[in-house]
Amino acid sequence: MAKTKKELGLDSMGVQKSMRTTDYLGDGLGQLPLNIMAGLVGQLTYFYTEKVGLAAGMVATMLLIAKIFDAFSDLIMGKIMDEGKSPKGKCRPWFLRMAIPAAVMIVLLFTVPKNAVSGLQSAYVLITNILITAVVYTAVAIPYGALMAMRTESSEERGKMGVFRAAFGYIAGMVIAILLIPITNMLGGTQSAWIKVSVIFALISLLSLLVL
What we know:
The longest helix has 34 residues, at 118-151. The chain is built from 8 helices and no strands. The mean pLDDT is 89. 76% of the residues lie in helices and 0% in strands.
């Protein structure tokens, strides 16, 4: 005989609960790819200048242009999501759609053609950064942010979701901030070492978005 799940009951405000521990864990996983992408982008100036040998001025300019694109993409993504129609809702389809692009873009950030002419390198840096920040990151972050309000009407549960999200995000952010450079140095400190580590982060992001 199948085991029936225990009723969740009401929160302190009398609102029906809808979240179990597994739901909080699954939702929190969505913060991993977001913080992985943001954390790796934050390391790009060091990587581009120290490991690929790109000019600091060129790198700064390309990253600034990518940020400008990113400033407008949130508004566009919000409208696209609102107008979307899917049996799985307005949010979740985007996690599945962006799972593979997120993984691919995380790796492509670090595969800059090292011996190419500067114009090609500049274009590569600009295009990959626009795609990961203004397209992929935005297409995950906007639905993920909206999911909290849609998932439960309980402010108590939303607060708990925020705690789980912060915990997962903190783990990803701290690993990248503290361990990324030491780990890549252990692997040789070359561009190839960064690519290898990026593949691991790409797989984590892929699995997280598929589970979410």
